[in-house]
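Hi W.,

Here's what went into the run:
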Amino acid sequence: MTAPLHRPRPGTPDTQQGMRRRNLSRVLHAVAAEGPLSRAAVAQHIGLTRAAVSTLVDELIRAGLLEELGPQRPGGVGRPGSALMVSDRGPAGFGAEVGVDHLAVCAVDLRGTVRARAERRVSNRGRAPGPVLRDLAALINQVNGEAAAEGLRPAGLAVAVPGLVARGSHTVVRAPNLDWHDTDLGALLPAHLPWGDDVPLTVDNEANFGALAELWLTADRPADFLHVSAEIGIGAALVVEGELLRGARGFAGELGHVPVRPEGPACPCGSRGCLEQYAGEEAVLRAAGLAPGADRTALLAERADAGDAATRRALRGAGSALGIALTGAVNLLDPRAVVLGGALSRLAPWLLPSLERELTRRATTPADGVLISQLGSEGPLLGAAHSARRTVLDDPMGSVRA
Amino acid sequence: MTAPLHRPRPGTPDTQQGMRRRNLSRVLHAVAAEGPLSRAAVAQHIGLTRAAVSTLVDELIRAGLLEELGPQRPGGVGRPGSALMVSDRGPAGFGAEVGVDHLAVCAVDLRGTVRARAERRVSNRGRAPGPVLRDLAALINQVNGEAAAEGLRPAGLAVAVPGLVARGSHTVVRAPNLDWHDTDLGALLPAHLPWGDDVPLTVDNEANFGALAELWLTADRPADFLHVSAEIGIGAALVVEGELLRGARGFAGELGHVPVRPEGPACPCGSRGCLEQYAGEEAVLRAAGLAPGADRTALLAERADAGDAATRRALRGAGSALGIALTGAVNLLDPRAVVLGGALSRLAPWLLPSLERELTRRATTPADGVLISQLGSEGPLLGAAHSARRTVLDDPMGSVRA
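Here's what came out:
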């Protein structure tokens, strides 16, 4: 990981104060990504003088965000007394996920280590937001208790949902597989949390958080890729130069309703022949002659692995449809790579051949390759937690003041 | 137009010098967009103190980029002596266009006014790059002569081409309708120019420059839109938060080869059922039973206007195919609007009804509307010239030193 780009906001002039904030962030990001680092190494990393870096480092140590490794600590650093690490106490990023079949919460410390995690299998399909969010809050409280016992406090909470979230809001505009509409988590969730409104809350689509997890947590991931994830729905997220393309209203990435065969089967969305009608989990189960159950992906993987012809044929068809829809996406977006995440990563062995055949044959300038996520279905939760963690790295003093 | 976002480059720390450069640019952009402006008005616009702005203004006046309107000049400004305008002499942006059926060149001054323009109708299809670029250089020299007579000198030359250009290069990787492959304009063009390599050269796809022209020159254009342009090929460009999405290799926007009906007619690109097979000019002429000629758009518009049933039916079919391909694009990208440019703008009356029907019926979250370009086929040339002009506004002292 390299230090990210910190941009002054549009329209605002550069100021000394803004410059200092961005440089504090650069120091903290450099140590988080590459630490332990000496002050001299930090200076070299970010291209400031050693004197300037020392002042910034001192401020971050006083704030409890950096710590100096004492000479008693072993390690390969030349002068161990001067090596810096980000703190493993203090602010932590909390991530939560509302899935169709489960709820999950975790806390990562500033070093990026998961320090507490809780999960509950529960069918949320068609369940009202109130009870779902009460259950989620119970998991958050449990994780918070465990984290507090280790000296961690939440710097932010990010919630991943399987639906469209209006940009810059906490509102799930539409989550068809939960049957939620215009659900404002900012109004509903804080009442159940010990900290109420005192910890910043973010809500975003699970595919977006999944893509951020790929970007931040997988070695050698390019900075430009299209991340496709599927469970019941099929979502995508585009990362451009290391940042999410969210769309004007936050709704970018609706790959599941790209028309594959415009005169194909009717889709509940009102269109016909959408990708989900060919490659959504329920469509694949139907094509394979299997009944939809709790762990759909496991069932498909198991049958395909056992050599079941109908399942394999259904997955080949899903792969072709994905290849056709992705041809359009690759032609439009020119990503460096396509990454298959979520349930798709587990089914990749049977999807990939037909998917790649369509893409190679059709795309004007095919991406360098189709990669398989190593994070799988854990991606969105990790992406959410790391996104909350990174708000501290992006504006260290903002989080201390808060 | 508002002052754009100026970002320090990724990985580089903020410095005093970088800050000063960005603030000089903010001042020049503000006066270019809103001038004449007093120093106080500039200060208010960009949020710096009046004293800081005055120093920056003095530097820009010394460099000949700003001028002070004397008290003898009429105008509505309170204290006319203090009103600032960008200069209409000195650096100019040169734009050039290599079309399938024409070549064009223009020069715009820092105020954005076209000061010289030349065009030549010539069929470039299948013509070797050498002769085409010699003809283009002759037009550039003609425009340069006219511009020089008015005290203008080229600050940059930007060339629009109907093909894929590798990002950050001068190389046309593929221009099917010219039959150019891996053509490096940086190696071929400067030899024919009076300034050789001394003026910065940019080469980009015509759809990209068309989209930039929409963004910069059309009032009330949103900062997030998908620009679709068509002549023989169909291209698109996506503007996100006021910047082009270029794709990892510079190839984003290949809307023409998005699959509309995956089992449809074979396309020279190797795929089947691409959008161009339904909505490219030649496909539409064929469907209308018309012979391809020199001014294809005019012929189609004339026939449709005269009520020719076959032509109208062919345009309705093209509109439907555009609507299906744009559904995928809108679902993936969530633009605020779709803008039809190039030949499409002239044919819009007959394309729009079927296009909008498909889009409304199919898109998960339709854009706010389909808009028609007012620049039409002049867009790419203007976008190129203004892109060269804006390199001066973006880094005023860089252009003076050069």
